[in-house]
Amino acid sequence: MAVDYAVIIVYLAGMLAMGWWGMRRAKSKSEFLVAGRRLGPWMYSGTMAAIVLGGASTIGGVGLGYQYGLSGAWMVFTIGLGLLALSIFFSARIARLKVYTVSEMLDLRYGGRAGLISGVVMWAYTLMLAVTSTIAYATIFDVLFDLNRTVAIILGGAIVVAYSTLGGMWSITLTDMVQFVVKTIGVLLLLLPIAVIKAGGFSEMKAKLPTEYFDPLGIGGETIFTYVLIYTFGMLIGQDIWQRVFTARTDRTARWGGTVAGTYCLVYAIAGAVIGTAAKVMYPKLPSADAAFATIVKDELPVGVRGLVLAAALAAVMSTSSGALIACATVANNDIWSRLRGAVTRSGGEEHDEVKGNRAFILIMGVAVIAIAIALNNVVEALTVAYNLLVGGLLVPILGGLLWRRGTAAGALAAVSVGGLAVIGLMASYGILANEPVYYGLLASLAVYVIVSLATKPTDAAVLTAWRERLAGRGAEAEAPDSDPVTV
Asked: Residue 413: how many CB atoms within 10 A of its CB?
């Protein structure tokens, strides 16, 4: 394993080095939080693909393939569909708003009264997303170094917190590009063909497994529908995803770069399911489906290649973890803390001072995430709670604000409150992992949004005019670049 260890150590050292480089570049709030809004199409595509394809998409995607066969691709496939929908229909408008958070968008659309409550919901979602990503370090470092769970979480989490705190979005962008390349080589170009060959090829896989393993709908229609509700719609409204849209140099970059990233996700989804199906042939009686990825890597790959593929898994986890961490810190600082102390700064005069504040919040949130990850055991339940709150509470007011001009601030606040409370109450009744909470919570949010909006006074014409100006890219203050643009 010495060669494999060397590959991993070089990779981790590179992540820290890029954090240091990013610190030298991130001199303003815009540079620190959204990479100066200057990413070109290829860098944008790579970083967007990296953040949405995390440990759940890699280790979990292979596990679903092991359990259900090719239909196990649906979870990651719906993530790709959500990213495609966001990129094609909404990303250009989102990029032109020139905001930093989803709650700022809601304030602009509804007149400044929806941000705090939506910020709390979004903060809870990004916090749990960061926690679940951080927990995944335990699995990878256990395979690599046979480390204790707590030590593994602290080690992986500390590296992500370090480079994220140093350089903000610049560091995360650079590391995500490396992680994207490592994932592509490790999972798509190495693990996928090796797994299929070791399993005897597709003909041997079909001969040894039940026919339902090759049924594209084998996982079940209700499960697929739930994946669409949670992951496809979740991609449309998550702060971690929107914050990457804000990094695009132009709205065209956001649209086409995101489309490329979404298409890549579809390919990645199928690859994970095929790898899991191959693992089922080779190891038909694993104690856990989620152990399929680590088992096939550990037992079937040659020295050096094994280290690269494990680095790919580590890259997948780190990209999602760092993206969720900066999103959590951004929301905590800009949408909650600043509002509570009545000091929301909208001008560029204090940009340099705000870098220190945002850097401090990343560090604070990072320490909190590591502590919660150590204490928490059930990753699936935590992630389900996060996505149910996000979709049940925020989907309707966000999409309603973008698509329906009659929506009002009162309707948005009612939708967030009723949808969020309905989801929490129904999870207590049906169980955290049940499908009903997100179904009924979303319907309740939609009904309340429409009814209250129609029953209350329409949004002020001046607010709507300012909103349309921002959507057209004319109302936001220009952000003068203070460094050379990155157009890759």
From this structure: 21
CA gap 324, 52 in Å, rounded:
10
pLDDT of residue 298: 82
- Give the Cα separation of 164 and 177 in Å (integer): 14
CA neighbor of 345 nearest in space, from 13, 37, 33: 33
Joined tokens for residue 266:
């579809």
Contact 167, 34 (CB under 8 A): no
DSSP state of 38: -
pLDDT at site 262: 96
β-bridge partners, 446: none
What does the pLDDT look like over 272-307, one tens digit per residue?
999 999 999 999 988 888 888 888 988 888 887 888
Dist CA 151 CA 264 (whole Å): 33
Provide the phi-psi class of 35: left if phi over 0, else alpha when psi is between -120 and 50, else beta: left
Q: Which residues contact 462 (CB under 8 A, 6 or more apart)?
A: none
Residue in 139, 159, 128, 338 with CA at minimum distance from that of residue 234: 128
Instruction: For residue 76, give the nearest of 214, 217, 264 by alpha carbon.
Output: 264
When the pLDDT of each residue in the chain is averaged and rounded to a whole number, the result is 87
What's the pTM? 0.87
Q: What is the distance, to the nearest Å, from the Cα of residue 266 to the centroid of all Cα atoms in its chain?
A: 16
Which residues of the chain register pLDDT less than 70?
Answer: 1, 113-115, 143-144, 342-353, 377-380, 475-488
Say if residues 402 and 471 touch (Cβ distance below 8 Å).
Answer: no
